[in-house]
Amino acid sequence: MRQHVRYLQQSDIDYVLILSGDQLYRMNYADMLRTHQEGNADVTIGAMPVTREQAPAFGIMRADDTGRVQGFLEKPKVHSEMDVVRTEPAWIDAHGVQSNGRDLLASMGIYLFNKDTLIDVLTKTDYHDFGKEVFPASIRARRVQMHLFDGYWEDIGTIKSFYECNLQLAQAKPSFELASAEAPIYSRARFLPPSRLDGATIKNSLISDGCVIEAGAVIENSVVGLRCRIGKNVVIRNSIVMGADEYESPSQMKFDQSEGHATIGIGEGTFIDGAIVDKNCHIGKNVRIVNEQKLDSSPETEEAMICDGIVMVQKGARLDDGWTL
Length: 325
Description:
The chain is α/β, with parallel strands linked by helices. The chain folds into two domains: 2-155, Spore Coat Polysaccharide Biosynthesis Protein SpsA, Chain A (Alpha-Beta Complex); 161-319, Hexapeptide repeat proteins (UDP N-Acetylglucosamine Acyltransferase, domain 1, 3 Solenoid), CATH 2.160.10.10. It has helices at residues 5-8, 29-38, 79-84, 89-94, 115-124, 130-141, 159-169, 250-258; strands at residues 15-18, 23-25, 43-50, 59-63, 69-74, 104-114, 144-148, 153-155, 196-197, 201-203, 206-207, 212-213, 218-220, 223-226, 229-230, 235-237, 240-243, 265-266, 271-273, 275-277, 282-283, 288-290, 304-307, 310-313, 318-319. The strands form six sheets. Strands 1, 3, 4, 5, 6 and 7 form a six-stranded mixed beta sheet that branches. A six-stranded mixed beta sheet has the order 11-14-17-20-24-23, with helices on one face. The protein is elongated, with a radius of gyration of 24 Å.
């Protein structure tokens, strides 16, 4: 943020919205701005009701009757700590969100600042962390208002949460709908050809543009990224295949083959289950990528590792014919 101070100082800027890059949700920020203005706030933060079982994963806030934040406790572990920052469920209900018995309000890591307030924070302190330093300090010195939210919201900043959220999107009735008529989610335009499927079987999956999926391939409960080439009789289950940044040229493919290496994509007869395959991977024929031993973790190698029980194939990895984890 400090690298952008000179842009923030432009005269036509009144407010600055700071968002996290590893969250999945849908919010109308105009509603948050209205809360900010009506509360005459210096800072407004998104707040979501959570249960006591969920609370240890969040920073929990306490507000007064006007919604002004009065206290903050990072990841409370026991009920006595939670009691200190408890909010009456009736107050939450009265402000348009059904509490359903939830009595704790978690920080969503979504911040709306008055421009001058943010510039002061960035230029007059040496704080580095918004959640642990900037926000708690703002509570003491500034008027910090709470904006209630209770839609779908997931932090996908860990391997496990990233994996689980992506696979949920591929379900017939996902918890978070990408193709909403009221507020659709767009990826950036890449101007790729449509994907070509040749006798493949695909169930509960998302397939991106520019893919070629050959006959006999089976893809179930998975997400397939851009430009992915999937060979004959490949089986992909419960996995995220990130695809490729560019198509491999015929000359490069010929060179790879002459050196005895796999080309970019997934070779014939390969089996993948419970994995995240990063971009630009060269996966040969009859490769087996599955956590057969049900390990929670494994040492990192140039090719792959296991984290939270999920097999992770490294970006650009080369797994030649017959490779197994």
